[in-house]
Design a protein that fits this description.
The protein is mainly β and 272 residues long. It has one domain. The chain has 3 helices and 17 strands. Strands 4, 5, 7, 8, 9, 13, 14, 16 and 17 form a 9-stranded mixed β-sheet that branches. Strands 1, 2, 3 and 6 form a 4-stranded antiparallel β-sheet that branches. The N and C termini lie far apart (48 Å).
């Protein structure tokens, strides 16, 4: 038993160390359609192409963990440990309707060689940063990046949903549904807004991810001048929308760029 506990703890420490790399990041609730009076479990993952490694909850990495419903909001940070990381956090579902959980991380830093940094910028639709580096004559310089994560997940309890999906939580980079994604079957257009520091963020690349029959689907979209996109998601089930935004760092000689990684997870219901 002691060996098993030690192994689990070592795994969670390794999972917590995964915060040191700038990858896609998302939070999943299990189940996404919980029973009223039961608890859902929150898990966080980092990875690429919607294939993730579980990360641990720890106060040195977790800055905000808050639960929203029509009853108000609840701070869940008291459930996050400060010494030994845990793999999941419970959230009690006390009433029917939509439940939203928002997570913000503390900052972390990473340095990448110039070629890898430039390729990563291109892959994430951050070509404006490539142009800035080119104009400054720093395209061949390593990328010193400070990053943070902003994840949200939606749950639908008791078979009903409400306007909680549209709450603005105040994340620096925030994905906000303008239509209820929990009540619309596949094939119905859904609008989403991307905000940075509370303002619409235009010309940003968003990706909608879904696993279907052992295939990973990714649908790209670019926000318009109002920070909006429209997705027509073709399948029922779990979807994750992700995006990343980057700006020049101005407050530290140790980093050149600040990046913000946003995600939103929800479950599209099957059509009737």
């Amino acid at each position: 038993m002691r060996h098993w506990i030690t192994t689990v703890f070592a795994t969670l420490l390794m999972m917590a160390s995964g915060w040191a790399g700038a990858h896609e990041f998302w939070m999943r609730a299990e189940p996404l359609s919980p029973r009223v009076g039961a608890s859902a479990q929150l898990f966080i993952y980092f990875g690429e192409y919607f294939e993730g490694t579980q990360a641990g909850f720890l106060t040195s990495h977790s800055a905000v963990l808050r639960h929203y419903s029509v009853a108000g909001s609840e701070d869940l940070m008291g459930l996050v440990p400060s010494v030994e990381p845990i793999g999941q956090v419970p959230v009690r579902i006390g009433r029917a309707g939509t439940h939203l959980v928002a997570f913000d991380s503390h900052t972390a830093q990473i340095t990448l060689p110039a070629d890898k940094f430039n390729a990563y910028l291109h892959d994430e639709g951050l070509d404006s940063i490539v142009r800035e580096r080119e104009a400054a004559g720093t395209l061949g310089r390593e990328g010193r990046e400070r990053f943070r994560r902003h994840a949200k997940t939606l749950m639908r309890a008791g078979g009903t949903s409400d306007a909680t999906y549209a709450i603005h939580t105040g994340q620096r980079l925030e994905l906000v549904p303008l239509d209820d994604p929990l009540s619309q079957p596949p094939g119905v257009p859904l609008r989403f807004k991307l905000l940075f520091d509370g303002k619409p963020l235009p010309d940003a690349l968003l990706r909608a991810w879904h696993h279907n029959r052992q295939q990973t689907i990714s649908i790209r979209a670019i926000t318009d001048g109002n920070g909006d996109v429209i997705y027509t998601l073709p399948y029922a089930g779990t979807w994750m929308i992700s995006t990343v935004h980057m700006i020049a760092a101005t407050d530290s000689p140790e980093v050149d760029w600040d990046s913000f990684w946003g995600s939103l997870m929800f479950e599209v219901p099957a059509g009737k």
